[in-house]
Amino acid sequence: MFEFLVQDKVNHLHWKMIKVNVVILTSFAISLFWIDLLQGAEGSSQIVIGFFALSFIIASSLVAVWMALQVATWQVSFTENKIEQCVFKLYRQVPMVFFSSLLITALLQI
């Protein structure tokens, strides 16, 4: 019974990781679309497109950070082994590192 619960917790963590990474990737792709659209526009339409692009980028970044923080603060209390605890602590930080690297890439492209 205990092994079934442990597998369920690990499976739940994996699904959270997949969801967070998908949200980060889609928000990054849509943000790049808005930036390309902004660069292709002329005159006063740049203001409107820029406002929508900035609003979307800020909102999607906040959602991505919030989801990554949820995974990063997920508690591992079912492992007895210190090595497994360290591996889970490092694994929980993957979405935040992934988000940070994509954010740095986006800032370097602008």
Shape: elongated
* pLDDT < 50 stretches: none
The beta-strand count equals 0
Secondary-structure element series: HHHH
Q: What is the alpha-carbon Rg in Å?
A: 18 Å
On the 0 to 100 scale, the average pLDDT is 78
Instruction: Give the number of helices.
Output: 4
Biggest sheet layout: none
Distance between the termini: 52 Å
Keywords, please?
about 110 residues; mainly alpha; about 85% helix; transmembrane
Description:
The structure is a single chain. The protein is mainly alpha-helical and 110 residues long. It has one domain (2-109). The protein is built from four helices and no strands. It has helices at residues 2-40, 45-72, 82-92, 94-109. The longest helix has 39 residues, at 2-40. The protein is elongated.
Quick synopsis:
With 110 residues, the chain is mainly α. 85% of the residues lie in helices and 0% in strands. The N and C termini lie far apart (52 Å).
Question: Which helices and strands occur, and which strands form pairs?
Answer:
Blueprint: H1 2-40, H2 45-72, H3 82-92, H4 94-109
